[in-house]
Design the sequence.
């Protein structure tokens, strides 16, 4: 009788245990990695005391410095370009009556989300190899172009979502008050779109900063970013130096994504 | 067929009305042109650095391989031929490319197993999150999203630290005296499977959660009132209702698993290759770009088939709801 009274329709036997175990499994390796980046010894399993040793080693490593600078340059340019292009595309494709070709535009914008990275990487390797040979230019431009392309959908989605929720009446009111279209856009539409734009730019930055596969195929010799440098190092002996870089990258991602969540919640 | 012409007197509207219609037409045309102009720069970048190059891959798959990588500009079916078949070096007899088939099979098998593991762990996890109070639900959801946005390489590396010979599991077991020599877990199919399930799990939980959040719990209550067992409720009520989320999650896990490159490279090593690594090999040591191009397109076709399959199911579900 009492059992019937406390009968919970939301309960499924064993589900809570599996869920909690899943969270544990999801976080245990990452947390361990962070903890052992502060280990004084070489081991990733035996704790020998706290130290900043590996962070110092990473900071004084010229290759890591270069790779970090390169990562930030590529991610900054790519996220800014992708956000500007995505904002324009979002303005062009939302809040208009459906027109012929709109599906094609959507398909092209979302294409990087559907094609496996390895296929895009190979395709870009082929094209850029020819261009590099023809022009003699082998700078960071190729990486920035490739990153801009695959960052566009990530920037586009939050901007479009924001724009779809916007009321046209505010812009109409601005026009009624004799604002020029440009002024109405700059003073009314753009500020209202801003949370979406910032969110899109942050996602694009994280996606670019974390990319391994496409960068691995596009980069010229000596153009390692932090993730491709790490991938190269994993082949050899692993030192806790890699843990230290991982931890830094991890915190950057977590910080940006947390900010993204806060921004999105304000909207709601 | 054209739309039927308006009747005789309506085909001679007042001049003012024609002018108004023309004006509306003009405005509409301008709106569409603006849409295209605004989208043009993004489309240009996407066509140059994402879609366009795929066509070049198609062209390259029909060329002959150069001796030191690259291609020779002459038409050849050798690239596609070698995807599934091989020619004996000595007597030119044609056989099936066993090495490639093994890798194809490993890719498909490991991707399916990864999807199953993700369902087994992700379903209860999504259910757990969906049945929390509204406040704590956001916290749990955030905890699932964080790994999703952290670097895939770092997460793979974290798994490697756990299972390698000098890693945590082996060190703990050896210190405790359970084993004498480290268990070899790295560079096995098991390692790849573990790594892929680990990195792609959030992709299963998120769509499942989205489906469960909209679940009408009154239906479940009704089923219990009719003396259904928990297992029966799960199988006959919950699973059918969250099926779209289940399928979406499976597609989201299966597709990147099939094209995985980083995880099998780090955890599988050189021997346990998957399709992504086989493709990379053709552009590195293999020096067979046409074969690499043909393999890439094969992967792309499998992915597209999976996506079309998914869209079909979603459309069918939507149609049956109406």
Sequence:
């Amino acid at each position: 009788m009492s059992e019937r009274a406390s009968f919970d329709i939301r309960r499924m036997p064993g589900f809570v245990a599996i869920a909690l175990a899943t969270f544990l499994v999801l976080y245990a390796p990452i947390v361990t990695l962070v903890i052992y980046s502060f280990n004084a010894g070489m081991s990733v399993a035996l704790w020998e005391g706290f130290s900043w040793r590996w962070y110092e080693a990473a900071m004084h490593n010229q290759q890591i410095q270069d790779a970090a600078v390169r990562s930030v340059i590529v991610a900054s340019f790519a996220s800014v370009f992708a956000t500007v292009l995505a904002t324009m595309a979002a303005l062009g494709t939302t809040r208009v009556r459906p027109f012929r070709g709109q599906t094609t535009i959507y398909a092209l914008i979302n294409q990087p989300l559907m094609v496996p990275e390895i296929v895009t990487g190979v395709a870009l390797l082929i094209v850029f190899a020819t261009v590099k040979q023809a022009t003699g230019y082998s700078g960071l431009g190729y990486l920035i172009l490739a990153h801009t392309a695959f960052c566009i959908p990530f920037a586009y989605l939050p901007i479009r979502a924001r724009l779809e929720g916007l009321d046209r009446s505010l812009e109409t009111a601005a026009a009624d008050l004799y604002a020029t279209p440009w002024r109405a856009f700059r003073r009314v539409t753009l500020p209202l779109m801003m949370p979406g734009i910032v969110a899109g730019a942050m996602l694009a930055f994280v996606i670019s900063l974390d990319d391994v596969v496409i960068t691995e195929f596009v980069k010229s010799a000596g153009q390692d970013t932090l993730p491709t440098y790490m991938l190269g190092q994993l082949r050899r002996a692993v030192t806790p130096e890699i843990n230290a870089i991982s931890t830094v990258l991890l915190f950057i991602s977590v910080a940006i994504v947390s900010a993204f969540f806060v921004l999105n919640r304000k909207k709601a | 067929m054209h739309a039927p012409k308006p009747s005789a007197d309506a085909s001679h509207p007042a001049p003012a009305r024609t002018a108004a219609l023309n004006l509306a037409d003009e405005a509409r045309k301008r709106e569409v042109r603006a849409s295209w102009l605004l989208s043009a720069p993004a489309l240009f970048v996407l066509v140059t650095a994402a879609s366009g190059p795929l066509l070049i891959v198609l062209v390259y798959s029909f060329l002959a391989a150069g001796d030191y990588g690259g291609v020779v500009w002459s038409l050849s079916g050798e690239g596609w031929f070698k995807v599934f078949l091989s020619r004996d070096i000595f007597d030119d007899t044609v056989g099936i490319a066993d090495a490639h088939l093994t890798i194809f099979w490993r890719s498909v098998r490991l991707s399916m197993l990864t999807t199953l593991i993700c369902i087994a762990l992700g379903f209860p996890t999504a259910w757990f999150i969906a049945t929390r109070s509204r406040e704590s639900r956001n916290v749990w959801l955030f905890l699932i999203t964080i790994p999703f946005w952290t670097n895939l390489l770092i997460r793979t590396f974290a798994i490697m630290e756990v299972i390698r010979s000098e890693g945590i599991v082996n060190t703990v077991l050896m210190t405790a005296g359970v084993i004498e020599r480290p268990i070899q877990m790295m560079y096995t199919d098991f390692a790849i499977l573990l790594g892929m399930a680990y990195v792609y799990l959030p992709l299963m939980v998120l769509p499942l959660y989205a489906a469960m959040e909209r679940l009408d719990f009154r239906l479940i209550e009704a089923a219990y009132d009719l003396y259904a067992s928990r297992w029966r409720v799960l199988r006959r009520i919950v699973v059918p209702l969250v099926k779209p989320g289940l399928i979406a999650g499976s597609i989201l896990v299966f597709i990147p698993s099939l094209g995985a490159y980083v995880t099998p490279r780090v955890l599988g090593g050189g021997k346990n290759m998957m399709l992504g690594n086989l493709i990379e090999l053709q552009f590195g040591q293999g020096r067979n770009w046409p074969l690499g191009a043909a393999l890439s397109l094969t992967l792309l076709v499998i992915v597209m088939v999976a996506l079309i399959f998914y869209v079909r199911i979603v459309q069918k579900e939507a149609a049956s709801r109406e």
Notes: Chain A touches chain B through 87 residues (CB under 8 Å). Chain A has twelve helices and no strands. The first helix of chain A runs from residue 2 to 5. Chain A has a mean pLDDT of 89.
